[in-house]
Amino acid sequence: MKKSLLLLALGFSTVFTTAYAATYDAVLSGDGYQFSSSFSGDTSFNDYIRFNTEGLQNIVASISGSSSKTFTFETFNLLDANKNLVATGSVLNGSPKVSFGYLESAQYGNFFLHVVGTSIGATTGYNGTITTFTATPVPEPETYALFLAGLGLAGIMGRKKKG
Fold it and tell me: Known Pfam families for this protein (predicted)?
């Protein structure tokens, strides 16, 4: 009796809950990418959003859900081309909104955003942005010291020629 009730409950849960899993490309837009996904009813989603960087770049991404409290994000991570974890996103489900900033420079190549969540009873979805920008090198203190020493020597040489 218990087995048959358990099987019946499992059958109903698979009929009334839909799971979406997709891999798709983000759309190039300005200085980065845009992405979105939509679905209806009781759903769980497990999406991989593909994008790439050109050279040594920083990556910042954010995502927002378009529904009420019944919409939650569980995971929002940056993965490399082999789907290995690079950076973990912060999930702030009061909004519903999540984001992460990856402050280290990423090498040239392909990456994925991994987005996992659920929605209960509504037509809903999410959208987001991925911004990539070139890392600006910051001079080391030794560089400034060498520059100032050279400037001082040039000043001394100019003063000797004048006098």
Answer: PEP-CTERM (PF07589)
